[in-house]
Design goal:
about 425 residues; four-stranded antiparallel beta sheet
């Protein structure tokens, strides 16, 4: 009893290890999303947008404290009372050489200025809305880029599956040739077949081996491309891949496709951009307080420290009708966006219709290929019996076998192509 349990546990562990060693399509999709430089850059741009919102909040709503200073010296050469002398900051000289002190005289102006915007909240809300839309556009870009990447990774994964299936097919066909070689060898021992027949089968086995190696080489190439798409610095081992069962996924309404989201966001961005421009025509009011020293003399500076406060108002009244031109630009941009959106809807609808028609044709080709494979299997079975009865030559069997192998490869290709069409349909039906 214990021995049987150990055997069952061993079988279970072998099966579990085999299944866990296989890699799934979803594993590659997750790795591709994580390593894609385009997606990383888009996420970073969104983070930059969040930081920009906080910076603009400080610009439009927070107070600002700054220090500024200006010291001017106007030296002259005085000749008063018949004596010449250098004065580095003369204020009331009568007889001198230098700048006219009535027009330019030395002074010092230094201190702190505190400024608080009083009408910046409206501007900030507009800018915040603008950058929120930009962040939504980055989210949409991330979603579209991931969708594009998933399509490419899935196609490459399907090519790898095709190569693996072809390699398994050629391995099974080699077993068929080995079995036929044993039959012909037995017939040759009885004088019912020749050594040339055995050599013919060996040649066909070598040909089958060469084709199998080509399938292996093709898998290695496609698998390397798959690893590159996923951004793997250390490629995963090329063990078996899990098969996939792709089916048509339910799509969204034509007017709510994710492919149209970018046009909605573009329209919102144009509207917000116009609102930001309109803010230039609204009064801008701010409160300021200064504290420092202002004097024309450099002595007794402490006696000239003081404070001033006031309001600063700016209001654009006329700029040559620039707003009128800006509004025209806005309506033209919206018209362009509507045309692009309508074109995208038409193209998407036509692509989906065309892909459905192609799928029907592909299904018919697969059905015909399956029928041909059944006919070939029956024909090979008949030829085997006739060879054993001495009524059929081996070369006839090899010719049919070669056509059978080609049809299997064609059938495998048709099935994978059907999955690729489904993958493309799901890409557009999104």
């Amino acid at each position: 009893m214990n021995k049987n349990k150990l055997i069952l546990i061993g079988i279970f562990l072998i099966l579990f290890t085999s299944v866990s060693a296989q890699r799934r399509l979803q594993d590659y999709l997750s790795i591709a999303d994580r390593n894609s430089p385009l997606l990383v850059a888009a996420r970073n741009r969104k983070a930059v947008g969040d930081e920009e919102i906080q910076r603009l909040k400080a610009v439009y709503t927070h107070s600002r404290l700054e220090f500024s200073g200006d010291a001017l010296f106007v030296p002259v050469v005085s000749t008063e009372n018949g004596k010449s002398g250098f004065r580095w900051n003369d204020q009331d000289g009568k007889d001198y050489y230098g700048y006219d002190l009535g027009e330019s005289s030395g002074h010092i102006d230094a201190g702190l200025t505190w400024t608080k915007p009083l009408s910046g909240d409206r501007n900030f809300q507009t800018e915040k809305q603008y950058w929120n839309i930009r962040n939504d556009m980055e989210d949409d870009h991330i979603r579209l880029s991931s969708h594009d990447l998933h399509r490419l990774v899935t196609e490459q994964y399907l090519l790898c599956l095709l190569d693996e299936e072809n390699e398994r097919t050629y391995n099974s066909l080699d077993s068929l040739l080995i079995y036929q070689s044993r039959i012909v060898s037995a017939l040759a021992n009885k004088g019912l077949a020749s050594v040339a027949d055995l050599r013919l089968i060996d040649i066909e086995r070598q040909k089958n081996k060469s084709i199998r190696e080509q399938a292996r080489q093709s898998f290695q190439s496609h698998h390397a491309e798959l690893n590159i798409l996923c951004g793997l610095s250390e490629p995963l081992p090329d063990n078996d891949l899990q098969p996939v069962d792709l089916s048509i996924q339910p799509g969204r309404e034509p007017s709510s496709s994710f492919f149209l989201e970018q046009f909605r966001l573009d329209s919102l961005l144009q509207h917000t951009d116009l609102a930001s421009y309109q803010n230039l025509y609204r009064p801008q009011l701010s409160l300021f307080v200064t504290n420092g020293v202002q004097t024309g003399a450099y002595k007794d500076l402490y006696r000239h420290f003081g404070v001033s406060a006031g309001l600063h108002l700016t209001w654009l009244l006329s700029d040559g009708k620039q707003m009128k031109h800006r509004q025209r630009e806005y309506h033209l941009a919206l018209s362009t966006i509507r045309e692009q959106r309508n074109h995208e809807m038409t193209v998407r609808k036509e692509r989906l219709r065309s892909l459905l028609e192609i799928m029907k044709t592909q299904d018919e080709q697969i059905r015909l290929s399956q029928q041909q494979l059944q006919d070939y299997r029956r024909l090979l079975a008949d030829y085997k019996r006739e060879i054993m009865a001495g009524r059929r030559s081996v070369i006839d069997y090899i010719n049919v076998f070669s056509h059978y192998r080609d049809e299997i490869r064609n059938h495998n290709t048709l099935c994978v192509n059907k999955d690729m069409i489904v993958n493309t349909y799901n890409y557009w039906n999104w």
